[in-house]
Amino acid sequence: MSIDLAVLIAFANFAFVASITPGPNNLMVMASGAAFGMRATVPHIAGIALGFAVMLSAVVFGLGAILEQFPVLWAILKWGGVIWLCYLAWQLARPALFWRPTNDNALTDTTKGRPMTIIEAALFQWVNPKSWAMALAVTVAYADLATAAWQRAVSMSLVFVLIAPLCNAAWLVAGSALRSLLSDAVWGRLALLLMAALIVLSALLIVLDGRW
Asked: Contact 67/211 with Cβ under 8 angstroms?
């Protein structure tokens, strides 16, 4: 495999910076850690890595060019993603919005909601504006990484699969540190509403993005 080591190192540095900075994924992981704990959020982190790796590989192999050539596909992806995100946000917010106090004023098992599954987190990458911006940018900026498309796809995907979960985990630890505050139902509701709000914000960014 002919890989330019200098470009690979530069790409790894970019992957770290892009993965550690605030964004929908990291903020949702932090909120999930606060609401559901570290172990329950691990599938969410795995889904982020899996979904973005598949998306990035698809873009390297020309998906971005195909979507540019057929704007109707962009429109389908855009509005399908917006509808799905709004549904997901509602599923998260509903337990908090319709919460009723119990004797100990805590969130009951039926009103706690649930963390995102690995599939949901993977699908979220396909409608996450930051993920699309990153995937489209790196395929152009680091095209010299390797000559063959499959080499670039494998290398870039592996780098993100190795780096992104570590960065997400830092946000998870921060969220888990807040979990002690969630003994009161108010904090639990706020965490769920925060996750829902971040998803709605992502949907709004999709709607406002001229490309989409």
From this structure: no
With contact defined as beta carbons under 8 Å apart, do 207 and 64 qualify? Answer: no
Vertex 205 angle, CA 199 and 208, to 5°: 145
In the structure encoding, which two tokens stand for residue 124, read together? 């979220």
Model pTM score: 0.79
Average pLDDT, the chain: 82
76-110 pLDDT, tens digit each: 777 877 888 788 788 778 877 776 655 554 444 44
Q: Residue 190: pLDDT above 80?
A: no
Report the alpha-carbon distance of residue 160 to residue 163 in Å, rounded: 5
CA dist 72 → 18, 67, 162, 183 (Å): 29, 8, 34, 48
C-alpha separations of 69 from 41, 62, 64, 129, 134 in Å: 38, 11, 9, 19, 20
Residue 108: per-residue pLDDT: 45
Q: Residue 22 burial (CB < 10 Å; 0-12/13-18/19+)?
A: exposed
Question: SS3 of 3, please?
Answer: strand
Helices (H), 37-128: 38-60, 63-69, 71-97, 118-125
